[in-house]
Design brief:
ten-stranded mixed β-sheet; globular; alpha/beta; 11 helices; single chain; 319 residues
């Protein structure tokens, strides 16, 4: 209900802005951008981007809180929104009709706008004796809500080490609840998939020493070979006051658009962000990179995005 009210409010604002028109009587195209929970990175960053584009591109973009990657794809499919954040792995599931979308079937109503930054698979513990994923066997581990993107990330990583959900004592919790359970000693470890530093882990680190469980080269390579949407990544020790840097894998945080959004609107959205990245007031803006933004290969790009990236010398597949 909270999300429904947010979308209705956004649509009312969109209609009001449309009524106001633009320069010389032209009406600016209006887009609703679904992000994530209102305490997370998706919402904060999406709100900043929406405001920036609205102020500089002749578009009216309104950010609304969302319920995560799967729900955002479903909202794009239904037409409730025109833009949405999504993990790159969940995007692939949707487009190919696997995992989260195995029962409902493939969704082809969207295309890629840009990959913006990496979301690390962070396996968090306060037990210094848990040093590898293999050490999670028999332990109580939070692996996200059943059927969530985090859940499938956890199953993928466990599988790379020959473990299954049955080899651990699974707990299904949100990031915040996982952090509280770790603090209270109710669980041994938790999978948290988000851009580092992540607030839940940062807050946890104020109550005691936190550690991230690393993934070695052999298992990273095996994981990427099976699931190419993962990328090798390192979380710096300084982010959480850890003894050393930790190697893991990451997925991309990608902006998607409905296929029926105009080429002109998406071109304006992308070009405004990347031509003015230094002026965007959010920590993740430093990660904006044309090569990474245009690197998605398993889902086509929106024609408006492909046009901009081609002008910059980066060819993409087009819907």
């Amino acid at each position: 209900m909270k999300k429904f009210i947010a979308i209705v409010s956004a649509l009312c604002l969109v209609f009001a802005l449309c009524a106001c028109g633009g320069q010389d009587g032209e009406k600016a195209e209006s887009l609703v951008f679904t992000t994530g929970g209102d305490t997370g990175t998706y919402y904060a960053y999406g709100s900043v981007l929406s405001q920036f584009v609205s102020s500089n591109a002749g578009l009216n973009v309104t950010a609304v809180a969302g319920n995560g990657s799967q729900a955002n794809v479903e909202d794009l499919k239904s037409g409730a929104v025109q833009l949405g954040f999504c993990q790159s792995d969940v995007m692939s599931y949707a487009y190919n009709g696997t995992n989260l979308f195995a029962e409902t079937g493939a969704v082809k109503d969207f295309s890629v706008v840009a990959a913006l930054y990496m979301e690390q698979v962070q396996i968090v513990t306060m037990n210094k004796d848990i040093k590898t994923v293999a050490d999670l066997k028999g332990k109580s581990v939070s692996i996200g809500a059943p059927g969530s993107g985090v859940y499938f990330n956890a199953i993928d990583v466990l599988g790379a080490y020959g473990l299954t959900e049955n080899d651990i004592k699974p707990v299904y919790q949100s990031f915040g609840d996982s952090a509280e359970s770790l603090k209270d000693g109710k669980i041994d470890a938790a999978f948290i998939v988000a851009g580092a530093p992540t607030n839940a882990i940062t807050d946890l680190s104020t109550s005691g020493q936190v550690y991230l469980v690393g993934i070695d080269d052999e298992h990273v390579d095996a994981l990427i070979a099976k699931s190419p949407y993962y990328t090798k990544n390192t979380v710096s020790a300084e982010l959480y006051g850890m003894p050393e840097d930790v190697q893991t894998v990451a997925v991309g945080a990608v902006v998607l658009a409905r296929n029926d959004v105009s080429e002109d609107a998406i071109y304006k959205f992308v070009s405004t962000i990347f031509e003015n990245s230094a002026d965007i007031q959010h920590g993740k803006a430093v990660d904006l990179n044309l090569e990474f933004a245009s690197s998605i290969t398993d889902v086509p790009y929106h024609p408006g995005a492909a046009k901009y990236f081609a002008e910059k010398g980066f060819e993409t597949s087009v819907k």
